[in-house]
Amino acid sequence: MRVPLSWLREYVDVAPDATPEDVLASLVSVGFEEEDVHGFGLTGPIVVGRVVSFEVEPQSNGKTIRWCQVDVGEANGGVRGIVCGAGNFFEGDKVVVTLPGAVLPGPFPIAARKTYGHVSDGMIASARELGLGEEHSGILRLVELGLDPEVGADAIALLGLDDVAVEINVTPDRGYALSLRGVAREYAHATGAPYRDPAERAFEELAQPTDGFEVSVVDDAPIRGRVGASEFVVRTVTGVDPSRPTPAWMVARLQLAGIRSLGILIDITNYVMLELGNPIHGYDLDRLTGGITVRRAHPGETLTTLDGKQRTLDVEDLLITDESGPIGLAGVMGGATTEMTDATRNVLIEAAIFDTVTIARTARRHKLPSEASRRFERGVDPLVPFVAARRVADLMVEHAGGTLGDRGGALFAEVFLEAITLPHGFVPGLIGVDYTDAEVVGALETIGCEVADSDAGAWEVIPPSWRPDLTDKWTLAEEVARIDGYDRIPSQLPVPPSGTGFTPSQHGRRRVANALAAAGFVETPSFGFTTEQQNDLHGSASGEHLPSVKLANPLDGQAPFLRRTLVPGLLQIAHRNLSRGFTDLALFESGTVFLPEPGVSYGTATVPAAAVRPDAATLAALDASIPPQPRHVAVLLTGNRVAKQPAQRAEPFDLADGLDAVRLIAAAAGVEVQVSQTQRAALHPGRAGVVTVDGAVVGYVGEVHPEVSAAADLPGRVIVAEVDLDALLAAAGDRVVVGALSGYPAATQDVSLVVPASVPAGEVATALTEGAGALLESLRLVDDYRGSGVPDDAKSLTFALRFRADDRTLTAAEATEAKLAGVAVAAERFGAALRE
Hints:
Mg(2+) binds at residues 469, 478-479. Residues 742-835 form the FDX-ACB domain. The chain is of the alpha+beta class. The chain has 21 helices and 41 strands. Helix 2 (20-29) crosses helix 4 (180-191), helix 13 (504-518) packs across helix 19 (725-732) and helix 20 (761-772) crosses helix 21.
């Protein structure tokens, strides 16, 4: 809301020396947010001049200029020669002259300069050049504004160009502040300055004609039981002259408030809307057919609004109609058929109260936000329409030459404001400040509440009609705190509850993330939504269809499903980075995936009311309506592990790096994993592995299939891995991740076993580990040989074994015995034999 200070001073005393920043500081103290300060951005000398004479001079470039002699007053140098390109003024016209040294909005400094063979000693200004609007058809003639000032007078003060506006942000619950009336009241609360309510008028001044013009409200489909229009007031003004100029002060105030001048009739309705907060609409009375009916739209109805667009109406839209059909979208925008024009002579003024929800929905449905809808959807004072209608009528009589008509109509309901019970002591207990009863009552009465003490240890508080946001004792307490000053509320940091810190699961997740980051991976959270095809491709081994959760109102219509896997998001991030020139990537993400069970319908539970604590059965139903959401961790590698450099070839990422990443994750989680060869639809055949812990599948690793990489616009080799982090941490249990180091030396031995070619090396390693027992500290596959000396259907696997005891130095015999025990288990399971 932009508030011109000259306008604000009409309703509240503002110190003469108060700066815009001072006014903003006062408004901030009562809960508004400071936005900006707006002015016309010009400085003098800018004066009134009279065109003494001019000579028309055609130019070789096709333009025609006027070489003018303009009297700007003896104090300003008398008659000056000025070149002007406009042709809409006459000898004797009084105009606005910007003299050398002036600065116009832009900034555009004015200086004497030679042009078209003359020295132009200043400039005759248009309304657009002065910042008074977008009109650029010609010079601003003061006679068109109804002004006849003295030559040489200060034009800045004359036109109100020395005014300035402060802008504040008005939250949706404080719609009353979208008016000068509301802001002036708040400024009075902040400073204690006397306040003058522009809506205060004698009752006899508001005598409303209730006959001569038929008005009715027919609402067969109220929203939430609320009729679309609760109040509708019309007045008539006859014999207006729409060609009359809008007063300069009104044009300046509207411009500072962010509304351009559109002619005297429309300017008056906008002016009163800003002044009182009640949107006003004016109709050309002679273009109306019969009376006015407020109703909902019929199916298939259309309306051409003032912006020239034909709109197909919804049956929920509230309309203003006459016998010819719709003539306006109630509370949003009027219709083109009855708009006020230059030919209008008789005006019907409408001031109404419309249902907030109806107006909000209509404005959003038609993508038609307006100054009117902005106020109606926040709530308008139900006691102000009579005042607003009369105020518009008076201004049209005064400035447009009209006569107050004797026709009119009014529909209104009694305004009933229910009292709110406010217990004594509630406000201090809630806010934490020792307010006295007098302070509580005084703050509430300051904002316009009626406060009466009851016998039940409480006050009965009736909020003012312009404050629909005051609905309960909590909102009243907030007002006391706001009016009394937020600076009285003590600042106390909450004391954290005692506890044991992170849970084991949280510790585990942090260890994994820190380990990957330390290894050079970059964490890249991705979009949590994807397509059903991506879920099927990357979420299953064979690419078969899997159940996925589809959002009813997705952010992206092309990705409406919750992800079953993290890999599609990493592929998208890799593509985005590659498109920006980052070719060597090591990425990881840790996040939840959504794994609905087949045949189960999710998201069907009834959402309980927000103000009621759900019972155990309701909470259980809500939990049952949510699919399982385990936390996974995934990595992606592409490009080079080692960049090309002198004496060093580039080393690209390969499957071994993916395996290392999986082992790193497992080590940080505190478990040991086994990797066996497998097949997956999204991975390269022969370059995919399944990750298991104690025989349970927890993830996979492999190289992305070239066709899948190409579909994701990823050139080159892409390695991915994804594991169920929750499953890893559950398998780890309470085992110690980092044990004590033994001070005794290790015994190392190698063993080469010949096994059938179809036996995975990981299963052979598991057998060796189980057979060797507790003395085996580590086991590593160092060779997989197939060739001379080994049967065609077999392979030779060589393992490096390391043995260590915690309490002694192992002998070679002990190490050999443990090794052979492992070989025995491998022989029993797979027919393994020592290679000679």
